[in-house]
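Hey L., structure's done. Input below.
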Amino acid sequence: MSTETRAMSLRLPEDQARALDAVAMADQTSVSEVIRDAIAERIAQKRKDKDFQERLRTAVERNREALDLLAE
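Output:
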């Protein structure tokens, strides 16, 4: 994992924010750590998802074609 970090802003409905605070408190960790763990889990799921991987390849190819057009 990279040691560089980037600050990001996140807007949540009040009920989700309160639930997130409760999870962090119960786990004796920070809200940021709970969010980072959830994101890491989601990314790991997507890496295993064959349908997602195909959509990702399609998107990458579409962007590659657009970049090639601009490079001409």
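The two ends are 36 Å apart (CA to CA). The mean pLDDT is 94.

-- N.
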